[in-house]
């Protein structure tokens, strides 16, 4: 049975407030909660003690009783004292936006690395919020005033030390996994296969785009990534090799989606995962073009990428879900922007051509003469280049092919100079 919740937010005249509240409701739904009511307050400055004003706190309490809500979720990150004050005033559990996003990430994490990243972020969030248990212990034992600095305070300090120790232990574990991934990343770089990273807001269609390309151009078509119409369906970085009909190839990566007010604890914990995009040769910024708030989503994605140091990487803006828009002509391209539908083959082929132009413009047509004893070079060209012509001559095999700058350098000794 879904938990009944209220959502509460304050508007400080920010233009995307309505969207932020709508997204909070979607986040709650993504965590199997039923939103039974919503309260808003226009206010210049949040109340330092209770986030909303006292009158609004009473209103929240009344609505929660009427709707039988057992949890109230607030649209911003609350301070530890705000959570404590609100729980006392409402006599209900209180959660903030950060706690909600962390809960969703915890439920969705499947790989060891993602689980460690989420657990670290969760503990860092909880650390300053340890309170209550110790105070209750002292109140129950009848202590008061200065004597309150007794067993309760010691309990809180012990809990904090335990959490700090856990964080250090998990960070060491995570560092080992990150090192392993770094080794794999360096190997990929050494192979000189270009890397294309899919980035974008959560539920924009990154995994659908990846699966479409994997189905069409990968020998690992059975290794499609999890894809569902829900927030944060993907938390792990997936890497797939794409081999095009002309033997040009690239690695495609798909990673965690972004959301507005993404908790800084998560950005920090997932930094190594998000940095996959930093080393890419090309970013495909997938946008849900059917969402009226797509511009806000794009801005959030760009700000988050900048926060983890992803800058100066060429970008193609891929406006997805055009099939959901009336009278939209697609696929089409204007400069570094395309409009397409990741669910339709002609759109995926169109996107592939755009990627090819961006990645492989440096490829050149060259002629090679390969002695018969170096048959492995012929095999290499057949597997890694677009072979345009093959002719068997007296002294070896003549091949005319389109090759990458790296392969041209590698095969320089076989090149026929014009």
TrEMBL record:
UniProt source species: Listeria seeligeri
This protein's GO CC annotations: cytoplasm
Positions of GTP binding: 200-207, 254-257, 320-323, 341-343
MF-aspect GO terms: GTP binding; GTPase activity; metal ion binding; ribosome binding
CDD domains: HflX
Protein name (database record): GTPase HflX
Lineage: Bacteria, Bacillati, Bacillota, Bacilli, Bacillales
Compartments reported by the entry: Cytoplasm
Encoding gene, per UniProt annotation: hflX
Classification via InterPro entries: G_HFLX_dom, GTP-bd, GTP-bd_M, GTPase_HflX, GTPase_HflX_N, GTPase_HflX_N_sf, P-loop_NTPase
Job description of the protein: GTPase that associates with the 50S ribosomal subunit and may have a role during protein synthesis or ribosome biogenesis.
Cofactor(s) named in the record: Mg(2+)
Self-association state and partner proteins as the record states: Monomer. Associates with the 50S ribosomal subunit.
Domain Hflx-type G: 194-363
Signal peptide positions (record): none
Family listed: Belongs to the TRAFAC class OBG-HflX-like GTPase superfamily. HflX GTPase family.
Keywords on record: Cytoplasm, GTP-binding, Magnesium, Metal-binding, Nucleotide-binding
KW Metal-binding (keyword) present: yes
Binding site residues for Mg(2+): 207, 234
Region annotation (Disordered) ranges: 134-157
